Amino acid sequence: MVCSHPNASLVNSRMLIAPTFSTSRSQIGGIAVTELAEKFGTPLYVYDQQIIDQRIADLKDFDVVRYAQKACGNLAVLDRMRRQGVVVDAVSAGEIRRAIAAGYSTDPSKHEIVYTADIFDRETLELVVKHSLPVNCGSPDMISQLGERRPGADVTLRINPGFGHGHSQKTNTGGQQSKHGIWHTQIDECLRRADQTGVTVTGLHMHIGSGTDLEHLSEVCDAMERTAKEVGRTIKTISAGGGLPVPYKDGETYVDLAKYYELWNATRNRLSEDFGHHVALEIEPGRFLSAESGFLIAEVRSVKQVGENHFVLVDAGFNDLARPVMYGSYHPISVAAKTGDAADREQADVIVGGPLCESGDIFTQREGGYVDSRRLPAARAGDFIVIENAGAYGFVMASNYNSKTRAAEVLIESGEAKLIRQRETFEDLVRGEVIPD
Ligand code: LLP
User: Fold this and answer.
1) Tens digit of pLDDT for each residue in 223-279?
2) 410 C-alpha to center of ligand 1: Å?
3) The pLDDT of residue 39 is above 50
4) Any catalytic annotation for residue 3?
5) Ligand 1 — pocket residues by CB below 6 A?
C-alpha cells in the first residue's frame, strides 16, 4: 500500500493508495470467511494483524505513536501494539486497567500510559495518583485537582484551539460547541493554577476531531506553535492528537502522511530551536491504526421483499456495530457465499438490516436515519455478509440492547485465527442482576 510520492521535494515521500472495495469476498487474512464463521460462530469480529502492523509502520517518522485504545481495546490488540513500541492513551479507569493488563508499564518516566480526559471521576483520580500516571488535562479544574493530590506533578494540557472538524458533528472536538479541552484563551489561568501546587506544564496536545482532513489537521500546527510559545520553555512534548481518516468508500483517500509529518516536524523544529531543547512529537491515532484491520461477519438469516425494497436481514445489529445508526456512517459491505463465489452472482439493490426490534437497525443508512440501498451480489439465507473497516469504534461501542450477547473477537496472525474474546453468554448478560425478595 506504500508507494513513492509524486512530490519528490518531500523528504519522506510516501503516500498511501486508497483501496477499491469489492462487494464479494471469500477470505480475510488468508482464511475463508465460511471457515471463520463455522469455527467461531456469528456475529464475529475478525482483525487482521498484518493490516495493523502496516499502519504502525506508516507512522514510523513520529517520535511517539500513542494508540487511542478507545477505538479497539481488546487486550490482545493492545499487547500487539505494545510489542511494536506503540504506547497508549487511556480515557477512563477501565482503559488504564486494560493497558496495565496488556503489559504496559506504569513507570511515570516511561509515559507508556497517559490519562486524557476533561474530568477526573473519583475512581480514576485515585488510580492516577496511585500509579503516578502522566495526565493530559482537558479542564483547568483537573490541574488543581491533580496538584492537590500530587504537588509538583508534570502535566500536559489538551487545548481546544477554537476550531475543530470531524466526519460528523458528533466527532468534532474543537470550537465553542465542544466540551473538550482547555479553551485557548485560558492558558494564563491554567499556568496560575499550576503554580499554586508547583505543577509544571511540560506538554501540549490538540485533537480537533475524528475523521477530519489535511486542511483542518494542518491548521492545528499554527495554533500549537502559538500556544507553546505562550506556555514557554517547560514544553518538552507536543501531540498532534488523532483524527487521521481512512477511506470507507471508493473515491475517499488517506491524508498525505508525508506532508502531514512535514508540517508537524517543521512546527516541532521551530519550537525546539526557540526553547533550546528537543521537543518530542507525538501522534495519537485510533481509527488509522485499527479500522481497516477489522471485519464484522454476519450470517444472512432472511431475504425479503417489502414493497419495492429488498431487505437482507443478518444476525448482527446495531448492538454489534453502532456507527451507521449513530452517525449514518458508511461501511463497505461484501457478500461471502456459503458455497461458490459471490462474485458470480447477479447484483441486486438491497437494504442490509439486523435482528433488533427497531427500524433504525439498518447498516445501509445515511445520517438522519435515511435508509439507502446498496448494490451487492444477491444473497440468500445461509450466506454471509462482511461489514468492512469495522476495527475502529466497532466492538468497543457494542451493547447488550435487546438482551443480545456481544460477539466473539478473533485475531488473524501468521495465517492462524486466534480467539481473543469469547462470545458472551446468557450468564454474562445477567451477571450482577439481583431479584430482591
Ligand atoms: N485522541 C483523543 C483525545 C480523542 O478524543 C480521540 C477520539 C482520538 C485521539 C482518536 O481519534 P481517531 O484517530 O480515532 O480519529 N465513535 C466515533 C469516533 C469518536 C472519536 C472519539 N475520540 C466513530 O465511530 O467515528
Assistant:
1) 999 999 999 999 999 999 999 999 999 999 999 999 999 999 999 999 999 999 999
2) 23
3) yes
4) no
5) 68, 71, 89, 116, 171, 173, 207, 210-211, 241-244, 284-288, 323, 392-393
Total-model pTM: 0.95
Q: Which atom of ligand 1 is nearest to the CA of 168?
A: 25
Q: What is the pLDDT of residues 85-112, one digit of tens each?
A: 999 999 999 999 999 999 999 998 999 9
Q: Which residues of 237-249 are buried (b: 16+ CB within 10 A; e: fewer)?
A: bbbbbbbbbbbbe
Three-state SS for 152-206 is CCEEEEEEECCCCCCCCHHHECCCCCCCCCEECCCHHHHHHHHHHCCCEEEEEEC
Q: What mean pLDDT value characterizes the chain? A: 94
Mean pLDDT for the stretch of residues 409-435? 98
**Residue range 378-403: mean pLDDT, rounded:** 98
- Indicate the angle between helix axes 214-231 and 187-196, nearest 10 degrees: 50
> 164-218, pLDDT tens digit by residue?
888 888 888 888 988 999 999 999 999 999 999 999 999 999 998 887 788 887 7
| Closest atom of ligand 1 relative to the 242 alpha carbon | 13
Nearest of 47, 68, 102, 55 to residue 391 by alpha carbon: 47
**Closest ligand 1 atom to 210 CA:** 15
Cα(168) to centroid(ligand 1), Å: 11
- Which of these, 393, 398, 421, lies nearest to 409 by C-alpha position? 421
Task: Please check whether residue 295 is in contact with residue 387, taking contact to mean a CB–CB distance below 8 angstroms.
Answer: yes
Of 207, 248, 255, the one to substitute when testing ligand 1's pocket (max ligand atoms within 8 A of C-beta) is: 207
- Residue 179 CA, ligand 1 centroid: distance in Å: 14
- Tell me the C-alpha distance between 283 and 260, whole Å: 11
Q: To test ligand 1's pocket by mutation, which of 55, 70, 95, 289 has the most ligand atoms within 8 angstroms of CB?
A: 70
pLDDT cut 70: percent of the chain above it: 97
Contacts of 19 (CB under 8 A, 6+ apart): 1, 247
60 burial level (CB within 10 Å; 0-12, 13-18, 19+): exposed
Ligand 1: which residue has its CA nearest to atom 5? 207
Q: Cα of 170 to ligand 1 centre, how many Å?
A: 10
